[in-house]
Fold this sequence. Notes:
Elements: H1 2-7, E1 19-21, E2 25-28, E3 33-41, E4 44-49, E5 54-57, E6 60-62, E7 65-71, E8 80-88, E9 94-101, E10 130-131, H2 134-143, E11 152-155, E12 159-166, E13 175-190, E14 198-201, E15 204-210, E16 223-226, E17 238-241, E18 244-250, E19 253-258, E20 265-269, E21 272-275, E22 279-282, E23 285-286, E24 290-294, E25 299-303, E26 306-309, E27 314-317, E28 320-321, E29 325-327, E30 335-338, E31 341-344, E32 349-351, E33 354-355, E34 359-361, E35 371-374, E36 377-380, E37 385-387, E38 390-391, E39 395-397, E40 403-406, E41 409-413, E42 417-419, E43 422-423, E44 427-430, E45 443-446, E46 449-453, E47 456-457, E48 463-464, E49 466-469, E50 472-473, E51 477-481, E52 491-494, E53 497-507, E54 510-511, E55 515-519, E56 525-528, E57 531-542, E58 545-546, E59 550-554, E60 560-563, E61 566-569, E62 581-584, E63 587-588, E64 591-594, E65 600-601, E66 604-607, E67 610-612, E68 615-616, E69 619-620, E70 623-624, H3 630-633, E71 642-644, E72 647-648
Parallel strand pairs: 2-9, 10-11, 11-13, 12-13, 13-15, 13-16, 14-17, 15-18, 16-19, 17-21, 18-22, 18-23, 19-24, 20-25, 21-26, 22-27, 23-28, 25-30, 26-31, 27-32, 28-33, 29-34, 30-35, 31-36, 32-37, 33-38, 34-39, 35-40, 36-41, 37-42, 38-43, 39-44, 40-45, 41-46, 42-49, 43-50, 44-51, 45-52, 46-53, 49-53, ...
Antiparallel strand pairs: 1-3, 3-7, 4-6, 4-8, 5-7, 8-9, 47-48, 69-70
Amino acid sequence: MFAVAACEPNKPVETPSSVELGTRTLSISADGETKSVAVTANCEWTASSSVQWITVAPATGNGNTTISVIVSENEGAEARDGKVTVTSKDTKASSELLVAQAAKKTTPDNPDNPDNPDNPDNPDVPAGNTIKTAAELSEFIGNAATVPADEEWSITADIDCGGTTIAPIPSWAGILDGKGHKIYNFVVESADSRTGLILANTGTIKNIVFGSSDGTKYDGKSAIKPASGSGGNHAGLVADNQGTLENVVTFVTVNYEANTDPGGRFGIGGLVGNSSVASNILSCTNHATINASGEITQEGAIGGIIGFAQANNIVVKDCVNAADLVFTIPMKKVLMIGGICGRTNGEVLFDGCENKGNVSYDQAEAPSTWMAIGGIGGVYYNGTVVKNCKNSGAISTNIVHSSRVAGILGTLNSGGRVENCQNSGEISAIIPEPFDPSVKLWLTASGIVGLQEKDSKDAEGNNRRNYIIGNTNTGAVKVVAESVTPHNNKISGAGIIGIGCLDVEVSNNTNKGAISVENKAAGDAFCGGIMAMAIVTDVKMEGNVNEGAVSCKTSDDAKSCAGGVVADAGRYPDKSDVTTVTVTGDKNIGAVTCANTAMVGSIAGLNLGTLTNCLAGGSVNGTALANENLGTLTQGAASSGTATGTTLAK
């Protein structure tokens, strides 16, 4: 019997169901159309429509294929929207497609040219303002900078550019509607300090796929690059966007070369390098690889959708980054990387965006100051709002540096907000080399926000708080380093926010991921289910729930600190104690492990603030919480703060 059991094969590891559609949106004419959409899946699936005027064929399938989305004629005077959903058989994975159909026109808007045989879908566009061949596209590119604002042009066929090398469009102010068509097989070579197919857009570009012949994969050729000795400034499909991009999909490789130093900061994006005025990026998707070379000597921001958003009233909505962002370029200054946007500098809105790519930085010659990496953003300043966003990519670093690594946002700064976001990606900061003990380098990682620091003033001079509200993390967070850094921030990891420093409210968040921190040196380490270090001034935690396992370890366990909700509530190492941390109504049902019994608890590892009406549960170092041990296991024995109204979590 034992022999048979020993020979019995291991059970196969079950692969999670995965379903993805090749596009997120379709624009359909009023007359109705049938369009093909790629399905990428590893399972059986069903396709359904939310409305009767959309039919999907086939309605079921298994694995990768193409479905037909059949849209009937719209006889009404109003445009209409519908939705196609493809769902795995086990209902654990799904992907949605928004179908937007135009209204039926009863009379032509252009009475001087009512038929317009070259562009029947849009009588507003003059017959001469259509592009359907590579020759016409070449002519258009050469004259695009002279097109007046709001003049409309349409692309009426897919265009194979035949591998030609073209110069970029210096500027665009008109309206270019691709009608869902594809432009591919081209190379852009820019002699400007900026690199892009369009160097400056103040108009509208919409409904175009760049760099793919079928809309689902890279054509292997299309690329944007600087000419020899050029570059060094902003780079992207659009180098500088001051207008609107809508339903633009890019597969075009973006090549950045640090040949010059224009001063200031640069932005590199798969879609947009930089935006310096109020502008819009709506329902766009990036599949493009970003390559950076040379030695960067100025501060840099890199994003799958946009590198640097530096003005108020920039809106990035319903955009998706599906490309991996992996960088090894040497940096001499600050580096900020985000799956959607690297850095903001104003009241920017990110709403409903999603990162699916892996984001990482791997370079022995690390930035000379600090860096931040996030699934949505690197560092966001001055009132930026991130809401309803998702990350499923792995976010990581393995360099010795002052790093902030997180599933949503590396650093939240000066009056910003992260709300109703979700991370399911694995977050890791595993550093193979020891930190220089004489240098103030530190490290934090988290499922949602790495570090929050600084408030700001509104127009009336009042403080603007930072808010991290209603977010959920299900991804594992792992930090491994060897550090006895003299910096006060130390080594830390958490489910929601690594470090909260100043005027921040962290409320109604949930962590379900396993969180572990290991310092291989005899230095400080902090690990919390919700927050690792709540420090400095006015940090408020309320209504948060931790369900994940929390584990903290150092080489001698003398300075490890772990809490199911917060590890360190109010103590800033080597600084004066801070007592303005409040934790109200928070709950832990996860297992907390930390060999330093003086600084481990179901709610707080070390509390110098105020814990009120919390629900303590789970276990502490293997001992399950019960009514008789609430007093000793709610917070660590070294705590001098108060804990009132604690009850046993059910």
